[in-house]
Design a protein that fits this description.
This protein has three helices and nine strands; from the N terminus they run βαβββαβββββα. With 159 residues, it is an alpha+beta fold.
Length: 159
Amino acid sequence: MGTATNKIIEQNELLTLIPHKGKMFLLNRVILYDLETLTLTAEADILPSCMFFDAKLNGIPSWVSFEFMAQSISALSGIKGRANGKPVMPGFILSISNLNIETPAMQRDETARITVRQDCIIDSTFTFEGEVAINNNIIATALITAAEIPFSSVIKDTK
């Protein structure tokens, strides 16, 4: 059993841990992580400032849950990398399977609680179980397969 760290990581620090920036940065905070069990719980506040906010729904479509999960995976990777003295690595979603969404939208002023747990690793490919809950009710679950790729292999030298 791992030792969970419940130090809250707010947005400013999160920006140093994941490559998402600007309007695509969706998480508000990390509230719990465990580097032994490779789990993380984050939160995203459902506000009109979110790029996915839909006034007709008075909230965010629940399909955005998979992006909350993906950014939570990225945060876990960033925290793990920082603990090991490594730079932030971009991740790429290879597949999303068994996506189950229970409600059409997350409503304004609610807080989505996102939990991800690494299930399997093969080379630089990772599989995670993820879930999103509102008011302790799970509204979305998925299995996400992602890969980490070093910046040096995706950024060409311009000299």
